[in-house]
Each structure stands twice: as structure tokens, then as C-alpha cells.
Write a structure and sequence with these properties.
The protein is built from four helices and three strands. It has a single domain (9-119), classed as Winged helix-like DNA-binding domain superfamily/Winged helix DNA-binding domain (Arc Repressor Mutant, subunit A), CATH 1.10.10.10. 40% of the residues lie in helices and 7% in strands. The protein is elongated, with a radius of gyration of 17 Å.
């Protein structure tokens, strides 16, 4: 029987990076503002213990906060997750970050002043259930 190797610090950095990017993407798309280990396993093929350990580490360093059995990005966590997401997906993105509109977006037209921009997701637009696939 083969043993699983003990994760290295580089493995942990990899999973923390992946977790933050998935959480940022889910938030930006309006799919979820909080995640559990089982939510992450839908996107990341990792042992649940590895994900749980790294979620907890991200909590300890104040990038995530607990919300019952789930975790939520803190304000600092959102900025860090955004940086990592943009670094990873820069070649595939337009000029703006995920969930941000561009200068030529219709919402910058004075005729649309005060209207919500469909390119930007605000917390008020997230489904109240906040779980992945909730309400689908």
C-alpha cells in the first residue's frame, strides 16, 4: 500500500492560490460568496483534508473568515484573490479585472447615470443562499 506523501510548503501555497482564485471567480460571477470544502471539491481535485487545512490557514492569516461551516473572503482576501486571479488569467482577460467594467461600458454614458452596471457584481446581487448551485 502506497502512502500519500506529506504535503510540502509549496503544495500548500499551490492549494491556497487555487482556493483564493476559485473563491474570487465564484464571487465575481455571483455564484457564491462563501464556500465549504465540498463546494471547492467541485472545482479542485484535492483531498478534503488538504482543502480544509489550507482554508484554515487562509483564515489564520486573515484572508478568509468563517461563516458557520463555510469561509468568506475578507476585504484583504478579496484583494489578494483578485491579484492572484489576474496574475493567472491575465492572457485571457480584457483590460479590466474580473467583475469590473471598462471605460467604454454603457454605464459610463451620462444617459445611464445611476443605473447598475451589469459588468460589476455587488454583494447585494448574490443569491441569499450563497451556496454553489443554490437556487439553480
Amino acid at each position: 500500500m502506497e502512502r500519500n506523501p506529506i504535503p510540502s510548503p509549496l503544495d500548500d501555497l499551490y492549494w491556497q492560490d487555487e482556493i483564493l482564485q476559485v473563491m474570487y471567480w465564484l464571487l465575481g460571477e455571483g455564484f457564491a460568496d462563501k464556500v465549504t470544502v465540498s463546494d471547492l471539491r467541485r472545482f479542485l481535485e484535492a483531498d478534503p483534508g488538504v482543502l480544509a487545512q489550507n482554508l484554515e490557514h487562509l483564515h489564520v492569516i486573515d484572508l478568509l473568515e468563517r461563516a458557520g461551516p463555510a469561509y468568506v473572503l475578507t476585504e484583504v482576501g478579496k484583494e489578494e484573490a483578485k491579484r492572484r486571479f489576474v496574475d493567472e488569467f491575465r492572457p485571457f482577460l480584457g483590460r479590466n479585472g474580473h467583475g469590473e467594467c471598462s471605460e467604454d461600458c454603457w454605464c459610463n454614458d451620462p444617459d445611464h447615470a445611476g443605473e447598475a452596471c451589469p459588468s460589476t457584481v455587488h454583494e447585494s446581487q448574490l443569491r441569499p443562499e450563497s451556496g454553489i448551485g443554490a437556487g439553480l
